[in-house]
């Protein structure tokens, strides 16, 4: 099983163990990422950051998300 995983590429739009993770829609090319790490190929759309483009640079979105936790 480990041998199969090491040499089998996930289908486009997915990555990770058993290809269960979806690439971010915030990648420059939406849903396109490295099929192992999930890192967006070509970077993030405006307003998003980090390698997987899963962190907003818009402080108002951060505040809304934080407020929902409490």
Description:
The structure is a single chain. The chain is α+β, with helices and mostly antiparallel strands and 70 residues long. It is 24% helix and 11% strand. It has 2 helices and 4 strands; from the N terminus they run H-E-E-E-E-H. The chain has helices spanning 2-7, 59-69; strands spanning 14-15, 21-22, 48-49, 55-56. The strands form 2 sheets. It has a two-stranded antiparallel ribbon with strand order 1-2. Strands 3-4 form a two-stranded antiparallel sheet. Strand 1 (14-15) and strand 2 (21-22) form a beta hairpin. The radius of gyration is 15 Å and the shape is flat. The mean pLDDT is 84.
If strands are numbered along the chain, what order do they take across the biggest sheet?
A: 1-2
Sequence stretches where pLDDT stays below 50 over 5 or more residues: none
Report, as a whole number of angstroms, the end-to-end distance.
Answer: 42 Å
Q: Provide the residue-averaged pLDDT.
A: 84
> Element order, helices and strands?
HEEEEH
What is the share of helical residues? 10-25%
Query: How would a textbook summarize the main sheet?
Result: 2 strands, antiparallel
Q: Please state the overall shape, judged from the principal axes of the Cα atoms.
A: flat
Helix segment count? 2
The amount of beta strand, in percent, is 5-15%
Oligomeric state? single chain
